[in-house]
């Protein structure tokens, strides 16, 4: 029995590992809404490490001043806030579909593509409506960037059902429909999107009752009125050089960290080979130190583009590490559940459900999950909330400061491992 379990674990690790690689290719930003009918996920799915986002964010507010900038709104929120009315003339408001999910997107514009796979009825409907508005001959939507269909992706906290107040406008560049076998029913729509710009959400049109309708598989999707956040104001020119230097320092830090991953430091907390592969996959981002007129729009655009590229690269590192931890948890959890089911005697019924286990085993599984969650939080590589904070910060200098803090934390952790290894 023991050896077959070991073997089973090996297979799981290999499986997870492939998931890891695929996921890495898409920068792990694929979001597949889980179907509630899929009970198999109990036995085989990666167990989610963090979902209580709002309570976690409130907890962190005490120790991390930057978390003050993160705010959540109710879906029934439809009041115009005072600060919105004050500057209302400054930028245009738009109404567009609102897509609540468990991920945060950096506005990297045309630098990278994100894939969203829609299976929930309301998300499929949203995609169909949006595509109907655009020219949709062939798989490509619309080549004219200004006319691509758009929606707003926003982070949703599972614990409270609320959404973050800052979201990212996504434009659809390609759509692919997949049908249920032998029918014309759409099973899923895969959207290739670009993350265009950050917006403040100040009004959800139809948020009341939405959660209930969603559970009832209603096709009604959310709509929101949003306002673009002006990208950095032009700062006085004596401020811009230091900013450029700091972005360049971030790029350098990324390179250092890449090297340390390639050396496989601290590898025991992840499936085999995770870190070297990750290290190899990390892109070098060259920040050009330009001498152009520092008041020009071009200078700012370049600076911001470089910054968001680094931020996105950092986020995908966080996703990859989380996936690694999740794979280990799943493997250990499965092993324990098989052991528990065997201890009960009788033929092994798959999938194994938590509620079928004896209480002492259920407790063990729960403890395992809690410990993994704790470990994940301690690692400090949060791919979601820390990045929601990042897009919620109003100016470039603050964003650079925050990202620098996130990256420095990991660099110091790795350097500590190095120094311990050399001390031995
Ligand atoms: C993105 O757009 C900019 C300006 O519109 C262009 O200069 C650049 O080459 C594009 N990059 C990619 C990767 O398509
Ligand atoms: C994004 O997808 C489009 C359409 O498939 C493709 O032409 C483009 O090269 C992709 N861009 C990147 C950065 O992968």
How are the secondary structure elements laid out?
Elements: H1 2-25, H2 41-44, H3 53-61, E1 72-73, H4 82-86, E2 94-101, E3 114-118, H5 121-133, E4 150-155, E5 163-164, E6 166-179, E7 186-204, H6 210-215, E8 222-228, H7 237-262, H8 274-281, H9 297-344, H10 359-379, H11 385-392, H12 396-423
Parallel strand pairs: 2-4
Antiparallel strand pairs: 1-5, 2-8, 3-7, 4-6, 6-7, 7-8
Helix pairs in contact: 1-8, 1-9, 7-8, 7-9, 7-12, 9-10, 9-12
Bound molecules: 2-acetamido-2-deoxy-beta-D-glucopyranose (NAG) (2 copies).
Which structural class matches the secondary elements?
alpha+beta
Global shape: globular
- CA radius of gyration: 23 Å
Beta-strand share of residues: 5-15%
Strand order of the largest sheet: 2-4-6-7-8
Helix content: 40-55%
User: What is the terminal-to-terminal distance?
Assistant: 38 Å
Low-confidence parts: 1-47
Can you write the helix and strand succession as a string? HHHEHEEHEEEEHEHHHHHH
Q: What would you say this structure looks like, in words?
A:
This protein has about 425 residues and is α+β, with helices and mostly antiparallel strands. The chain contains twelve helices and eight strands. The strands form two sheets. It has a five-stranded mixed beta barrel with strand order 2-4-6-7-8. Strands 1-5 form a two-stranded antiparallel sheet. Strand 6 (about 165-180) and strand 7 (about 185-205) form a beta hairpin. It is globular. The chain binds 2-acetamido-2-deoxy-beta-D-glucopyranose (2 copies). One 2-acetamido-2-deoxy-beta-D-glucopyranose (NAG) binds next to loops. One 2-acetamido-2-deoxy-beta-D-glucopyranose (NAG) binds near residues 110 and 111.
